[in-house]
Inverse folding.
């Protein structure tokens, strides 16, 4: 795998705890997922009313990117230069089910718009003005080798200069986010972008 | 109109907006409250769920949903028709 790309930031959210670059930065014990995500919003975001309209999957991914990019601003990149490549295993099933429950009366437009998993990429891209390549994969596990290979190809072909990538999973009360900022140029913690290094940060 | 503002806040999940933040004549869309097209659909749902009103002419939407006052006037007019 190429050494000419770097993991410049990493954020893992699971078990009501947030780690950034391997260090615990936030914890809210005993909070249900909606309250935990609201706590992340209050702690890490400025006013962004659209957050409250998002489904839980989008809130999770959106909040994780807020933390991921807090110390690695992206304003040196053109909008087309930053991509977003994400994956999960439950797609948008949690919201699909909630939307289906509304159909018997009046179908909810606000829920309907979140019945695709890649909407989380849209919410992240709107927030950070990303217009580069994006993809959302649904897989039975976080296949780090596949995601790393896909992102490496985007970087090596010049499709993007930076990429937010990783895993954003949520279904009912279960959730996990593991996101990485990968760039061609080194800054921040600047770890070599290898599947092994991603795995180490994920564990 | 105070009740309608509460309904709008609940329907659109405007968690950081209080009823008193919404002016009676303030535009709901664009430069006003900043609502979007999905919110417009949710306001249609609000009329159906809370007031049993279905908008007969979709082209009237921009005038009906211009502000809280125009919404309230429309609801009152429709209720008077069925009274």
């Amino acid at each position: 795998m190429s050494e000419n790309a770097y993991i410049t930031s990493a954020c893992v959210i699971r078990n009501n705890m947030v780690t950034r670059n391997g260090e615990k930065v936030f914890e809210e014990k005993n909070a249900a997922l909606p309250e935990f995500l609201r706590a992340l919003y209050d702690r890490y975001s400025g006013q962004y009313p659209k957050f409250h309209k998002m489904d839980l999957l989008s809130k999770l991914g959106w909040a994780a990117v807020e933390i991921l990019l807090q110390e690695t601003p992206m304003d040196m990149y053109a909008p087309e230069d930053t991509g977003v490549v994400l994956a999960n295993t439950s797609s948008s099933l949690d919201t699909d089910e909630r939307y289906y429950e509304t159909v018997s009366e009046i179908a909810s437009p606000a829920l309907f718009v979140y019945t695709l998993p890649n909407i989380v990429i849209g919410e992240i891209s709107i927030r950070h003005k990303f217009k580069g390549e994006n993809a959302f994969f649904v897989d039975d596990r976080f296949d780090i080798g596949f995601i790393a290979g896909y992102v490496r190809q985007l970087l090596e072909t010049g499709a993007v200069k930076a990429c937010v990538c990783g895993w954003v999973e949520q279904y009912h009360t279960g959730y996990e986010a593991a996101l990485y900022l990968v760039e061609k140029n080194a800054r921040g913690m600047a770890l070599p972008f290898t599947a092994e290094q991603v795995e180490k940060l994920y564990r | 109109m105070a009740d309608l503002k509460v309904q709008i806040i609940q329907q659109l999940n405007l968690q950081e907006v209080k009823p008193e933040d919404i002016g009676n004549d303030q535009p709901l869309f664009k430069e006003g409250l900043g609502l979007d097209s999905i919110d417009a659909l949710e306001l249609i749902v609000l009329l159906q769920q809370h007031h049993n009103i279905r908008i007969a002419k979709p082209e009237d939407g921009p005038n009906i949903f211009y502000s809280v006052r125009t919404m309230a006037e429309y609801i009152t007019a429709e209720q008077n028709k069925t009274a």
About this structure: The radius of gyration of chain B is 12 Å. Chain B touches chain A through 14 residues (CB under 8 Å). Chain B has one domain: 2-82. Residues 38 and 75 of chain B are 21 Å apart (CA to CA).
